[in-house]
Design brief:
Blueprint lengths: L3 H16 L13 E6 L6 H4 L7 E6 L4 H13 L5 E7 L9 H12 L1 H11 L11 H14 L8 E7 L6 E3 L3
Parallel strand pairs: 1-2, 1-3, 3-4
Antiparallel strand pairs: 4-5
Helix pairs in contact: 4-5
Length: 175
């Protein structure tokens, strides 16, 4: 049985595929940068940040976490030639103000303690949901994490930004 959302995906993709003409784009991003941003459904990264398919890697996860994106960033740089990273968190993010204990309690309530145990086992320690308390400090912490990471080349430029979901504007976060 096909769900309503699956049917929408299929219809939309068929319409998209009729006009698709980007099949010859390189797998190497033309602008040589990666954006790490939140998976929040209010963010249209391509429109908001002025990129088109083939320009850049867009890595999305809950909270726009650099730690969560590290595996993808290493691949982006070491195998796909990117030389710059934009960390872009956003206002009114659901990860802001959460705690690991609070998220774990929700998971235990909804899925049982076995679900948290599985997540802990994958991480080989207590699972970190990577929440942050203050938005700009969260950006600064992620930028500092990448700049100090041995897995990120020293010449890679890393900068931090905040996207305002109410105005659509980005602002740079300084040290």
């Amino acid at each position: 049985m096909t769900t309503t959302n699956e049917a929408h995906l299929i219809r939309s993709n068929r319409k998209f595929a009729k006009c698709f003409d980007d099949g010859d784009l390189s797998h190497l991003p033309a602008k040589k940068y990666a954006i790490v941003t939140c998976m929040d459904c209010r963010i249209d990264a391509y429109s908001a940040f002025g990129i088109t398919p083939g320009d850049a890697h867009v890595i999305r996860n809950a909270g726009g976490s650099a730690r969560d994106a590290l595996r993808s960033l290493v691949i982006s740089q070491q195998l796909l030639q990117t030389t710059e990273v934009f960390i872009i968190k956003h206002t009114h993010c659901g990860m802001q103000g959460l705690t690991n204990d609070g998220v774990n309690a929700t998971v235990v309530k909804n899925l049982g303690p076995e679900a948290v145990a599985e997540l802990d086992a994958v991480n080989c320690k207590r699972f970190d949901w990577l929440p942050f308390a203050e938005l700009k400090q969260g950006v600064r912490d992620d930028v500092a994490f990448l700049r100090s990471s041995r897995a990120i080349a020293g010449e890679v430029h890393v900068s931090g930004w905040v996207f305002d979901v109410e105005t659509g504007k980005v602002s740079r976060v300084e040290k």
